[in-house]
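Question: what's this shape?

___
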Amino acid sequence: MRFLRNPILITRILFVLITCLIGYWVGRGLAPGRGPEYLAWTFLIAIAFLVFEVSTNIISSKKILLASAGLTFGLVVAWFIYPTIPPTIFGDQNIEDSQLKSRIICNLLFGYFGLFSRSSTRTDSVFHG
């Protein structure tokens, strides 16, 4: 149970699990029987990303963890803000298309802002070590 105290290890495990779940959903959505096949492919891709991330050591694990926390915070803020954009701003007749465009724009802007605001400043404010 000692590994539960390492937030970097938990983040990596959650990354692999969430990636596999998304791969299964995408495969099942494309064809009902392709979920396990896509799950296997996404598992291999996630492990390859982890091996690449661990072997490079270019970015510290603390910065990666803080950047992912900032990205999550930015996406949560975008989730609350995109409904406030009026649907007529894009000139579409279909309200659902306008909301989709506003959601994409908000996710990109606020996700980017959250990602780089946490990864570039105060890296030692959460973890002292």
Observations:
- The chain is about 70% helix and 0% strand.
- The CA atoms of residues 21 and 39 lie 7 Å apart.
- The first helix runs from residue 7 to 30.
- The chain has a mean pLDDT of 79.
